[in-house]
Structures are given as C-alpha cells and as structure tokens.
Write a structure and sequence with these properties.
The structure holds 2 protein chains of 2 kinds.
Chain A (H helix, E strand, L loop, with lengths): L1 H8 L10 H21 L2 H26 L7 H19 L5 H25 L6 H19 L7 E2 L2 E2 L6 E2 L5 E2 L6 E2 L4 H23 L1 H11 L1 H6 L4 H27 L1 E2 L6 H14 L4 H40 L4 H20 L1
Antiparallel strand pairs in A: 1-2, 3-6, 4-5
Helix pairs in contact in A: 3-7, 3-10, 3-11, 3-12, 4-5, 4-6, 4-10, 5-10, 8-10, 11-12, 12-13
Chain B lengths: L2 H33 L6 H17 L4 H22 L8 H23 L12 E4 L2 E4 H23 L1 H11 L1 H6 L4 H23 L10 H15 L3 H23 L1 H18 L3 H10 L1
Antiparallel strand pairs in B: 1-2
The chains are: A mainly alpha, B mainly alpha.
Amino acid sequence: MNGLLVFLRRLEGPQTVGHGRAFWIVFAIVLAGACAYPLVADGYTVGNTAYFFVWVFIALSLCLIWGYGGSLSFGQTAFFGIAGYGYGVLTINFGSAYGFTLIALLLAIAIAALFALLLGYFMFFGRIAGVFLGIVTLAVTLMFERFMAQTAGPEWHIGAARLNGFNGMSAMPPITIPWFGEDIVLFADIGLYYFVLGLLVVVYLSLRILMNSAFGNVIVAIRENPERAEMLGYDIRKYQLITFVIGAALAGLSGVLYTAWGQYITPSSMGMTAAALPLIWVAVGGRSDLTSTVIGTLVVLSAFQALTIYGSQYALVFMGVLLVLTVLIAPNGLVLAVMNLLSRLATRGKEGKR
Amino acid sequence: MDIATLLFSALYQFGDAFAFLVLSACGLAVIFGMMGVINLAHGEFIMCGAYVTASTAHAGLPLPLAIAAGAVVSALVGALVELVVVRHLYDRPLDTIVATWGLSLIATQGTLIAVGSTMAGVGTPFGSFQVGHYSYSIYRLVLFGAALGVLAGLYMLFNWTRFGVLARATIQVPHMAAALGVDTRLIYSLTFACGAGLAGLAGGLYAPTMTLVPTMGATFIMEAFVTVVIGGADVFLGTAPAGAVLAVVKSAMTSWQGQLFGQIGLLVAVIIVVRVLPKGISGFLLRERT
C-alpha cells in the first residue's frame, strides 16, 4: 500500500508541468468531458476525434525522445509504418478470431520496438548525437517509404497479405475484443473511441510516472549535459537506447491504431510530410512537457483539419509557417508558454492572498 | 562482353554515382562544416536551381548560362533565408533542423501551388556514345567532370582566397576570428549562400536528366545526407572520399539488384560506418594526421 502511494506520488514532479489539487481537478473534468463526449456527438465526429487521439501517441513518443531525451528523431514515422504494416500483415493472415487482433497489436508494436533496438544500438553505441541522429533516422524513414512504395507487384506478399506498393494495404480487420457471447468489434466510432481514450489516459499517466522517476531524471540530465551525466556514472548509451525503444513502441502503437482505425495503411504515411507533421505538433505544443504535447497535438490537428476543408493546398504552407515561427519566437512551444504563464499567475495570486 | 567493356561500364557507373553524391552533398557539407548546421531545406534549394535553370532555358538562354542562373538565384534565396531565419538559430543546431524543415514544407507546397504539379523539362544535351553493346550518355561524363570541377573550385576558394582564409579561421575558433576583426556574421551569411548556390548548381546540372516536380528535392537529400554523415565536417577530406566509397557501394548494389537496393546499400553502409567511425571519414583522417 505504501509502495503504491510512493508510486502514485510520481504522477507529479519536476519533469512535468501541472501539480496540486487544481491541476488534477481540471484533469478529472477534462477526462469526464471526454468520456461524456460520445453522448452528445454523432458517430462520425466521435470517430474523427478518435483519429486525433490516435496521433497523440506518436506525438508523445517524439516528446519523450526529443523533448525529454534531447535527441531529435525522424524515425518515429518509420516505426509508425512498421507497426502499421505489421498489424496489417498479421491480421490479414491470421484473421481476428479469439482476440487475435489484440495479440497482433502487441506483436506489431514489438516488431517496431525490436527494429528500434537494432537501429538504436548502432546509433547510440556509435555515439551518434545531435544533428546526425536526426539525419540518420530521416534517411531510414525515407528508405522505408521508398521500399514500400515499390512493392506493387504480386511477388511482394507476406503470406496472404499483398503489400500493394503505393496503394498500400487495406481491408485488415478492426481491433476485436473477445467477449462472452459475441465479440466486440471496434469500428471507427464510439467503441474505438473509448478504447483509444483508455489507452491514452494509461499511457499519459504512466509516462508522467516514468519521467518523474529516477529513470526520467537521468534522461533529462543527459539532455542537459551528456558528459556530466556520464561522469556521474550513468551509461548514457543504455538510457538513450531504452528511451528510443519506448518511443518506438509508442509510435508503433500509433501506427497500429491508425491502421485499425481506417483499415488501411499506405507508404505515404511514412513520407516526408508524414514525418513533418508530428514534429510540428510537438514543437508548437511544447516538446519538453507531456501535457502541452497532448494539448498542442489536439489543437494543431483540429486546426489543420479545419484548414484542409477550406483550402487544402494552403494548409501545409500554413503548417510550415507555424513551425518556423514557433522555432523563432517561442522555441519551447506555444502551449507550454501559456501553461507556464497560467501557473505563474496562479502562484502570484496565492502570494497576494497571504 | 570482354573485360575492357565490362570495366568501362563499371567505371562509368561509379563516375555517375560519384558525381551525383558529390554534387548533391557539397552544398550541404559546406554549410555543415562551417556552422555545424544541417540545412534540411537543401533539397528545396536543389529544386529551386532546377526550376530556374529549366525556365531560363525555355526563355532561350543557352544551357550553361541557365545552370549558372539557377545557381545564382539559389544563392540569393539562401542569403535571404540565412538573414531571416537561420541567423537567429546558430546557438541551437537542433532547432535549425526543425526550422529549415518548416521552410522545406513551405517551399515544396508553395511551388506546387504556384507552378503546378510538374514543369516542362529540358532535353539531355550531347547525345550518347557506344562502347561494346551498350550506349552511354555523354552528359553523364560532363556531370562527372562538373563534380571534380566543383571540388577543385571549392579547394581553391577555401585555400587560395582571402574569403577562404577568413572562413577557415571562423570555422576553427569563431571568437578568436571575431576578436581579430573578422566579420563572422558576414562570413556565415556568405557561406550559407555559397552552400545554397552549390545546391542550386546541382539542381541546374541535373535538371536536364530528370522530371521537374516540386518534390524532386527528396530524391537528392537522402544521398546528400548520408554522404555528409559519413564524410564528416570537412569537404575535401570528408565529402570527396565519402562520395567515392559510397559510389562504389551504390554502383555495385545497383548493378546487382537495381536502384532501390543501391539506396538500401547506401543506408546500411552509413549505419555501419557511423558505428565504426563516429566522427566520419574526415574525423578519422584528421585524427590519424595529428
């Protein structure tokens, strides 16, 4: 019991913004609102919101690696794609009976994580850091896109699953939960919404605990000064590798959910533009904090979708401008700047009362 | 096929790959070597050079002049970008990557909106010649010559001119150079413009050989990146040997399994080389020398 309390106390700490009763009350209200949301909205909008949630995982993975770990990785998109394709190949071959889709979800994430382990070993144990890390991961991502894009012919198949080149794979079963009597099939509406929302809350809270634990503090210490962390006796390569693999698993989760949501995956979800978008959400939101990453991702995504409806071709230009301006004006992120301002105001108000 | 034609074919493919790697990477390498900044909009400068070359060639300019125009316009755009964005980010190299990526998004999509999804290309000049059963494009040999020319030109620029001396001083110890009266900001601007101009030159040179689309930069950047990653910070001791090594890998893999495997071979070679030589080839060579 006592151990659990210590564990839960890690929910807040120096590495995450938001603490005290006020923050958790707001958190509970938002969560309750999110749970009640399907009651007031129609199925399509709920499915669309679930789609937004799907992307939050890859944003969180980038937040972990880039914001907390200090290594800019463009590889998240590759892990996203690997897990997405992995889920497709597994479920098309083995079907969705007996809850196999859930096993496929875990297996696909494991494949992405395993690949990250391999790539990360070469990079971190080769002491690649800074800009080179970004470039190597970007090259890997582009390579995957090119590779998948040329798999059009019938000779490219894994079991019964055709890879279909640039058109991508489709018609894989959605996530199915085995249940007494009848299986629950999570199509892209209310069912999937609750599934993804639940995962999101679990992942968000676990990441908060992780980042405020000893492990998280070492990760931040490595970001601030790798040499110092090493002098203090930490093998920074291992810590970086573990962070990278966790990040890859999160990006993979995003990929699997994306594939299950739309029941398709194409190589262009691993391309340059696809790799740029998570970066924009995280940079605009505030890369060094989990909460601002979540908020930033949801806000920028909905703004992007609204823009796409009114002037699709200008939406990307706008995103580019937003990214450049954020880097120039508010390098720590817009949402994080606002949240810091709010917490400063709150503490000032308290001091005024005294 | 006898040995001589086989040998010629291998050499030709090596030269082709070498030219592509060196030309697409040298602009990136100049900027990286100078400021430790990776310009992710590099591909878009190449695209800019190619587009300017094609449009001026259509307007009636002879091809060499059109290519020069492409390089000059890219250099000017590069100077502008440095002034507006990159200048403010020198102490934050990771943010430079992010910002230049934003620029690349803007440039790609902006070109798509302004010019359309494709642009009429320029025919490849000079025709071809025959060795054995195979015919080879003469223009590819010109490109190989151009790559060697660019390397020689850069060597002369950095070793024989006053700008080169000041630039190398700024690379070594920026504060010391500034204290001795070098306008390091100006040097940075000029170097960035020079790198952008080299990218434009690469775009202009390759404009006659490929289709002009707004995303054409993406076909260059992977090769450019891996060459710079393997080469390290020095253009002569890094980019040139890295180009040579990678050209062997790429041409061998390409003739064995096709274009895609050439690229995969490049990537694998990079990941292995960075594991063995973290500071790139130039870091390795310089360490051996001292």
